Every structure is written in C-alpha cells, then in structure tokens.
C-alpha cells in the first residue's frame, strides 16, 4: 500500500514538472498548467490512479520501428507509462525465421530498420488484437491502405482501454464516395470512437533512428492529449511542437510533399532561384486554399503553416 501511495505521489510531481515545459514548447500562452492539474474531467490522467499508462504501436515498418524505439526508451524512464511497449508486427519470414521472433530475441528489425538496436522493453506481437489489449495510448504508424481494415478489426475486438487516445503518424488522404478527402485521423476517430491527434514533420526515419536532431509537429484535440503525447514522444534529438489543429497538420504533412517534388523539378530543369521561390510560394497558396475549402473552420491556417510547412 505504501509503495502504491509513493508511486502516485511521484507521478503527481512528474506531471507538475512536465506541464509547464510543454506549455512553453508549444507557445500555448492561454494555457494555465496548474489549473489543468485540478481539472477533474480528464479521464486518461485519472487512469494513472490504477497504474501506468499502457502503450501500443500499430505498425512496424521503417518509421514504426523508429517510433517504437523512441516511445519504449521514454516509457522505460518514466513512472507515467508502463515499461513494456507492444508493437504490432505483420509477421513474415526473414531467412526462414519469423520477424517477431527476430525482434524479440535480437532486438533489431532486420528487414525494415537494420543496424539499429531496439530497446528490450519493445515487444513485437503478431496479433493486432492482443497488441492493443487494455492499452491507453494507440500509435498508428502503418501504410494508409491498411488503416481501415486495422481499425475495423480493433473496433470488433474492443480490447483497448475505454479512455484510450490515439495518434496518427500516417501520411495520405482517402477520397470517399462524395469525392471529399478524408483524413486518417477521421477514420480512426469514426471507427474506434476515440480522439485522435496527428504527428507530422519533415522527418527522415533513419536520421531520427541515428539520433540526429529533428523537429516534428503534433496537431492535438485537447490539452490532456497534447501533454501526454509530448511526454511520450519528445527526446533531446526529436523535439515536439504542438498546435491545436489536427486537420491542418495532417493536410500539410501529406500535401507538402507535392510542393517538395515541384521544387526538386526546378533544380533538375536548371531553373533559377526566382522560379523555385515562385513555385514554392504558389504551392503553399494552393495548399492553403485546398485546406480552407475542404475543412472550413477546422484549419488554423497561419499557425499551422508556420509550424509544419516551414518544418
């Protein structure tokens, strides 16, 4: 009983430490960190009374393995999160050996992230349903064409925690029968009935895995989500910025690559810097118009563009 009491006191102190830090990092001037601690309607933080938050990474490719490495390292050094992080792996044979067995025994994803050692508390699981059982935090980082089926499977099993939250690291847009683009975060929210934030940035997976400095942006729905995801994902070399605009971050993260291609074409065709600057400017203007047309009232255009399009 005494140890549980001490753990709860420790968690409370940690929350008081990291909340002001995050508020500064995302420039949320209107946020009052200490009144947040007294807010009784934040169910996920209240779940800490029953123990640390459980984490699941859904996807184990190049980027998924890097994110698994980050969150498992942070979880191991925190009282807020459960030490063991489960990562769903689509099991396949690599040199006649199951990839899940290789990851769990050698602590390396030899197919998708070779040469990078993974934390021992990152556990590969071939079962999608088992990998999210009782989890509070679901990190989606799989190819977008597999997202709908994965969400349908998770919705049918309903094995994650009732107060679970999700974050999508998926780039790509869906187009439904009404010819309106649909975001990955919308599919997760609509199918699973949970809030979903978004992480996106100009991040090369191998560079992040090697510990090279980079920044990224989280589009969040509420302050509780923002603070928890920042605490889980932020490292000295992978810095998190936040903006209260899920749709804007996800759209910019997906469509800005088209602008990057156009800028590259300018270099390949030996166009001058004036032409390249014009292409980039017009590309951003088209992106702004696209975002405001399809997501009027949801996209904080100026704030999000400064956070992610320049990233």
Mind explaining what this structure looks like?
By secondary structure, this protein is α/β, with parallel strands linked by helices. The protein folds into 2 domains: 2-244, 3-Layer(aba) Sandwich (Rossmann fold), CATH 3.40.50.720; 250-309, N-(1-d-carboxylethyl)-l-norvaline Dehydrogenase, domain 2, CATH 1.10.1040. The protein is built from 13 helices and 12 strands. The protein has helices spanning 2-25, 33-37, 43-46, 62-76, 99-106, 128-131, 147-157, 184-192, 205-209, 223-233, 246-268, 273-294, 301-309; strands at 53-58, 81-88, 93-94, 97-98, 122-125, 137-140, 165-168, 174-175, 181-182, 196-200, 214-219, 238-243. The strands form 3 sheets. An 8-stranded mixed beta sheet has the order 5-2-1-6-7-10-11-12, sandwiched between helices. The chain has a two-stranded antiparallel ribbon with strand order 3-4. Helix 11 (246-268) packs antiparallel against helix 12 and helix 11 (246-268) crosses helix 13 (301-309). The protein starts with a helix and ends with a helix. It comes from Cardiosporidium cionae. It is an enzyme of class 1 (oxidoreductase). Keywords: NAD, Oxidoreductase, Signal.
